[in-house]
């Protein structure tokens, strides 16, 4: 899994979609940092080190229990993660952060471990989007909560952006995910191209075989899907006030830039992983500045 989209990361972790910290309003920096460190630590429990899957799942269950305690305003005396749950408990109390959104992130981390351990797959796009609903969408909803934007249309657009970012990470990362036993392409999409999960074993990184054209075409189609989702959510940048809107512009453009780089590789991300670097910054700034308001006014919030 990638670290949560929308949130700036410390330099210890590479992130696809970094956001400059100065764009974040000062009074929201502590809760945003608390959310980030909560998710980042959970991601490390799920991904880093040499622990076996069952131990990772046990650690995440303990982590979930500490989240529940933090949401109640309690401190676990023997906390293993006081640097996470101390600030998070304060932020939950001060900003009324919804516990369920934070718990959804942990649910996705646990699902990732279980599917990898059991050789699991995603049957279709709906199942993969359900994973994105828990692995990515909560981050956007938490940030909208902090900014006081809670209408149905904004939430749907945020979900589209966050799901797009998660999908972009998948189509960027097969050279990383396949060797780790993680398989995200929906089987229904694979079947249309005569591919199965077993088809990908013969051209994993360091294997002698090159990916067949059908697999490359699959990445092209899935990338187009991610781009469509991003377009659905992009009008949200004009809803958020001040710095928040600019922050989101860079998030959207960062995701689109990765899709550009995937296309520049001929959609062969099995052989190479595209990244955003400092050289991309001027283009991202230019594209963020040029984002236009939608032509039609937004619908009234659903109540």
From TrEMBL:
InterPro entries linked to this entry: HSQ_synthase_HpnC, Isoprenoid_synthase_dom_sf, Squ/phyt_synthse, Trans_IPPS_bact-type, Trans_IPPS_HH
Full protein name: Squalene synthase HpnC
Annotated SUPFAM superfamilies: Terpenoid synthases (SSF48576)
Catalytic activity, EC: 2.5.1.21
Entry's Gene Ontology molecular function annotations: squalene synthase [NAD(P)H] activity
Keywords recorded for this protein, A-Z: Transferase
Enzyme class: transferase
CDD domains: Trans_IPPS_HH
PANTHER family: BIFUNCTIONAL LYCOPENE CYCLASE/PHYTOENE SYNTHASE
Organism of this sequence: Variovorax beijingensis
